[in-house]
């Protein structure tokens, strides 16, 4: 059976609009939630992750995990696994046993996720963040699987989107 795919885009005119998207996704997050982020340097992947972490109740500072690869935090009711795989080869990523995170009790956000596409769970929400101006971003949404396809459709109804 073919996997359902949902698509759309979220137009963030300001940083606040990116934060609103992160907050909405945080409200839906549950164990096993998987969000894959891509986009240029400085697009806002880490900024999105910080807003998401805050919204699920992580206290304190969420830094870019570029050098640490994986950071674990505790939100109000869910662990949060924040990854940046920019510096990893596929082989190194494979050895980390990422499935323990992806299918664990928390929610995972991976920056530069497309670099390890083969290792990602088949069901996931992908966000591709693209600069369209100083503060404006086009965030392309692709939801793979029933749940994430539904999320995409719901996001399109919420706004700052086309
Ligand atoms: N609409 C917006 N959405 C997200 N960030 C924005 C927006 N407008 C401005 N910014 C700023 O852009 C910067 C994005 O930096 P961030 O570290 O999140 O990028 P990144 O995609 O994680 O980059 P890298 O690939 O280097 O990890 C932040 O300084 C943030 O304040
Ligand atoms: Mg980053």
Protein described:
This protein has 162 residues and is an alpha/beta fold. It has helices at residues 15-28, 45-55, 90-95, 99-102, 146-158; strands spanning 5-12, 34-39, 70-74, 79-84, 107-111, 124-131, 137-144. The chain has one domain: P-loop containing nucleotide triphosphate hydrolases (Rossmann fold, 3-Layer(aba) Sandwich), CATH 3.40.50. It is built from five helices and seven strands; from the N terminus they run E-H-E-H-E-E-H-H-E-E-E-H. It has a seven-stranded mixed β-sheet with strand order 1-7-6-2-5-4-3, with helices on one face. The radius of gyration is 15 Å and the shape is globular.
What attributes characterize this protein structure?
binds magnesium ion; 5 helices; binds adenosine-5'-triphosphate; 162 residues; globular; 7 strands; Rossmann fold; alpha/beta
Summarize the entry for a quick read.
Helices cover 30% and strands 28% of the residues. It has 162 residues and is of the alpha/beta class.
Layout of SSEs?
Elements: E1 5-12, H1 15-28, E2 34-39, H2 45-55, E3 70-74, E4 79-84, H3 90-95, H4 99-102, E5 107-111, E6 124-131, E7 137-144, H5 146-158
Parallel strand pairs: 2-5, 2-6, 4-5
Antiparallel strand pairs: 1-7, 3-4, 6-7
